[in-house]
């Protein structure tokens, strides 16, 4: 998740527009998933700095940490920085469906437990060394090492023998079999819809990253963080902290040398990204969409502009473990009693909509048919609070069992639009609303210990519909809401235990209905962003699942 005052900047490489979705299950949101395109009208207006670049593409990036190794970084911007250098076996296409990259194809056994990846012939890392199935096996083994403490939870795939290897009871992982240099089979013990992408992730060189490998000791890799070696379209040149990351086209890339020789990720302050784009310092930038920004970008004349939905949603955590929030009737009242449409209007000024299901509108799983929209209704909220035993006291504040109904709301900024709207709305229904402004780390700490009432957050990029809902499972270590519902637990598990997309759609629709009736959090918004691309750049097509990374090999500059 992203912790903020529901205030998100959209300059991330991975926040971008998605194609219009088709299908009757999404009819209620068809118009909101459309991407509006505005073509450049005057290339003569290109800044001189832009015109001078004949073989270099520049995009903005915010505050990388310098850990340029997949699976090991903690800063999400490092993830953006590694994407050009490290190719996966399998990635997602612009609609969120899997597509082969280093893997030419893959097979899944009838019982959905064994994956066989067939690598493309002649694959090489950027130093010219061969990339084989041994490197895939090494990567998966590394993720099972007991010293691995990164964010990739390889246990989700339940590879046969993986647990035994991690515990030191086996010297290899039984379920990983290298058939030949271009073929590897991986046998799992549980069906999981996310296994394909996890098993088919970015590949690390065994010769480079594994030469000093010892079981249980991974500190040696830290020396290689600033010296990455991968098989992506670009290879690393240098990193100047606070300034830029430079790359050069990888002549060994499986699909051929990228069309543009040089790639630069320029470290920017998002508050100045518009100015940097206007003056030609950037060829691509993303912005939170609003009328002023969109009109300013259109007026430049030299920009191709895409305005469309972002693959996330914003919400308010509710601490279900506290007595006043355990009753679902109370949580329903809190949703009814908050004018979410007003929050969206104030914040996004026509470039957002109220969220009613916990998945983005660009997801194949999105379906709000039969979902209670919880339209603002103070009268209904009061009735539900009365029903739950919260009676209005002499001071206008509701109380129960001698306890006043007070909500302390954690947020990062004093200008958070939720504050004045929630204060007024909740006061009207007899609840005192008290904001607490604190920094990112402080909020994270309080969420971790469940020392909060409400907290403003947003999801990170959603690659699979299970991503944002898994935390609501009983006992999940990341269940900051302290939520528990056996039916939800069952549906979350069912959603992962089939690879059939149509079946998954039905399961997630049932899950959304249950979460709608028994809300663990207060869903707030879907938002849009504006993507600006210099008119001399061709072949760049940002999408909601890979950002700009999938386009990088095909970017060219008009001469």
TrEMBL record:
Chain coiled-coil ranges: none
Record keywords: Signal
Gene3D superfamilies: Dipeptide-binding Protein, Domain 1, Dipeptide-binding Protein, Domain 3, Periplasmic binding protein-like II
Chain residue ranges for the region called Disordered: 1-35
Domain Solute-binding protein family: 97-473
Main location, first listed in the record: membrane
GO CC aspect terms: ATP-binding cassette (ABC) transporter complex; periplasmic space
GO BP terms in the entry: peptide transport
Membrane-related topology note: Lipid-anchor
Molecular-function GO terms, alphabetical: peptide transmembrane transporter activity
Entry-linked SUPFAM superfamilies: Periplasmic binding protein-like II (SSF53850)
Localisation: Cell membrane
Alphabetical list of InterPro entries matching this protein: Peptide/Ni-bd (IPR030678), SBP_5 (IPR039424), SBP_5_CS (IPR023765), SBP_5_dom (IPR000914)
Superkingdom of the organism of origin: Bacteria
PANTHER family: OLIGOPEPTIDE-BINDING PROTEIN OPPA (PTHR30290:SF81), PERIPLASMIC BINDING COMPONENT OF ABC TRANSPORTER (PTHR30290)
Family, per entry: Belongs to the bacterial solute-binding protein 5 family.
Protein name: ABC transporter substrate-binding protein
Natural source organism: Neobacillus novalis
């Amino acid at each position: 998740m992203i912790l903020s005052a529901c205030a998100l900047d959209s300059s991330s490489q991975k926040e971008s527009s998605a194609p219009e979705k088709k299908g009757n299950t999404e009819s209620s949101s068809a118009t909101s998933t459309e991407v509006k395109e505005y073509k450049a009208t005057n290339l003569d207006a290109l800044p001189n700095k832009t015109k001078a670049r004949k073989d270099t593409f520049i995009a903005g990036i915010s505050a990388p940490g310098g850990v340029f190794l997949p699976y090991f970084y903690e800063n999400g911007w490092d993830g953006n920085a590694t994407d050009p250098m490290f190719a996966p076996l399998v990635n997602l296409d612009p609609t969120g469906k899997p597509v082969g990259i280093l893997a030419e194809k893959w097979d899944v056994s009838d019982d959905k437990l064994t994956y066989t990846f067939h690598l493309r012939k002649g694959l090489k890392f950027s130093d010219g060394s061969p990339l084989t199935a041994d490197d895939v096996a090494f990567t998966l083994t590394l993720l099972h090492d007991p010293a691995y403490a990164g964010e990739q939870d390889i246990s989700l795939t339940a590879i046969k023998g993986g647990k035994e290897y991690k515990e030191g009871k086996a010297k290899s992982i039984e379920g990983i079999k290298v058939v030949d240099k271009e073929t590897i089979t991986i046998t799992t013990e549980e069906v999981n819809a996310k296994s394909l992408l996890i098993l088919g992730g970015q590949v690390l060189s065994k010769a480079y990253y594994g030469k000093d490998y010892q079981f249980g000791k991974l500190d040696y890799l830290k020396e290689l963080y600033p010296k990455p070696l991968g098989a992506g379209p670009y290879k690393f040149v240098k990193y100047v902290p606070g300034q830029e990351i430079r790359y050069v086209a990888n002549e060994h890339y499986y699909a051929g040398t990228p069309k543009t020789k040089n790639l630069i990720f320029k470290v920017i302050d998002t508050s100045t990204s518009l100015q940097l784009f206007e003056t030609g310092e950037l060829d691509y930038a993303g912005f939170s969409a609003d009328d002023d920004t969109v009109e300013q970008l259109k007026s430049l004349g030299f920009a191709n502009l895409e305005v469309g939905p972002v693959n996330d949603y914003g919400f308010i955590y509710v601490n279900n473990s506290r007595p006043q929030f355990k009753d679902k009737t109370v949580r329903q009242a809190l949703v009814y009693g908050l004018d979410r449409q007003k929050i969206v209007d104030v914040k996004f000024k026509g470039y957002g909509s109220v969220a009613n299901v916990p998945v983005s509108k660009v997801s194949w799983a999105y379906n709000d048919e039969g979902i209670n929209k919880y339209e603002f209704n103070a009268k209904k909220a009061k009735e539900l609070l009365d029903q739950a035993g919260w009676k209005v006291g002499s001071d206008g504040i509701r109380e129960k069992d001698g306890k006043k109904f007070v909500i302390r709301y954690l947020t990062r900024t004093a200008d958070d639009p939720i504050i004045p709207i929630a204060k007024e709305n909740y006061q009207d229904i007899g609840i005192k609303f008290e904001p607490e402004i604190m920094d990112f780390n402080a909020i994270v700490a309080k969420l971790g210990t469940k020392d909060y009432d409400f907290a403003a957050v947003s999801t990170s990029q959603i690659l699979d519909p299970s991503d944002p809902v898994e935390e609501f499972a009983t006992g999940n270590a990341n269940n900051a809401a302290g939520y528990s519902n056996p039916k939800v637990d069952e549906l979350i598990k069912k959603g992962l235990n089939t690879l059939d997309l149509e079946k998954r759609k039905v399961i997630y629709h049932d899950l959304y209905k249950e979460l709608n009736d028994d809300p663990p959090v207060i869903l707030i918004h879907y938002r849009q962003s504006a993507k600006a691309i210099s008119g001399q750049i061709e072949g760049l097509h940002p999408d909601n699942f890979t950002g700009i990374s999938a386009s990088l090999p095909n970017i060219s500059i008009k001469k």
